[in-house]
TrEMBL record:
TM region positions: 59-79, 171-191
Keywords recorded for this protein, A-Z: Membrane, Transmembrane, Transmembrane helix
Pfam families: DUF1275 (PF06912)
Protein known as: Uncharacterized membrane protein YoaK, UPF0700 family
InterPro entries from the UniProt entry: DUF1275 (IPR010699)
Source organism superkingdom: Bacteria
């Protein structure tokens, strides 16, 4: 008998947050100095290149969002430990509300302070990837594609080998999330190119939609699930 899953694992929530994840990566890269909000591997590589070239000030430019990402993970764990058993508000909802507040602040940070904006966006992305890690029972990420691509391809192989419909559904789910991330990146590139730094406000639509799903639907496991 299948276990009822927490609503945070709902595909609608995952799709909306993945759209935001792709959007934020292109937003920071285009309008905030060529830094990736989500892809810390990319920032680490770029930092390494700057260090190799002796451009230490530029290396710090990429190191700052990496530290912020770490801080975001720690913050979510703190919120989770404090509010996991709170009957009035679930920690997933509180995490999303904090992310939305940060996005509003970022929209009003001028380009001369891009480092501050990148710190906050990386903090938001870390909170999202740490807070929403499962999709219909399967591990996934809303802010990066490498792990999803690996898992989707693994499930595809399993389906081709066994003809297990469950594996096919898992593969389609992972590939669907990747396509949504790409769509978010495209939308982010277009709107950021047209509007500039305030284009980040469009992320609020996806975050608000995910928050609405979390607040509207309930499952029997809501109180017990982490």
């Amino acid at each position: 008998m299948s276990k009822t899953r927490h609503i945070a694992e709902n595909f609608k929530v995952g799709a909306l947050l993945t759209l935001v994840g792709g959007y934020l990566d292109t937003y920071t890269y285009i309008s905030r100095g060529g830094v990736f909000a989500n892809a810390q591997t990319g920032n680490i590589v770029l930092m390494g290149l700057k260090l190799k070239g002796g451009e230490f000030a530029e290396a710090v430019h990429y190191f700052i969002p990496i530290l912020s990402f770490v801080a975001g993970v720690l913050l979510v764990e703190l919120v989770k430990s404090r509010f996991n058993d709170d009957p009035k508000v679930h920690w997933h909802q509180l995490t999303l509300a904090l992310e939305m507040l940060i996005v509003v602040v970022v929209a009003f940070i001028p380009e001369c302070h891009n480092n501050i904006a990148n710190v906050l966006v990386s903090l938001t992305c870390a909170m999202q990837v740490e807070g929403f890690r499962r999709l219909n029972g399967n591990a996934y990420a809303t802010t990066m594609c490498t792990g999803n691509l690996r898992s989707g391809s693994e499930s595809l192989f399993a389906y081709l080998k066994t003809k297990d419909i469950t594996q096919r559904q898992k593969a389609l789910q992972y590939y669907g999330i990747i396509l949504i991330f790409i769509a978010g990146a495209v939308i982010g590139a277009v709107l950021t190119g047209l509007i500039g730094i305030k284009a980040v406000l469009f992320c609020l639509a996806g975050q608000a939609g995910a928050l609405l799903v979390l607040r509207t639907y309930k499952t029997p496991d809501d109180k017990a699930a982490e």
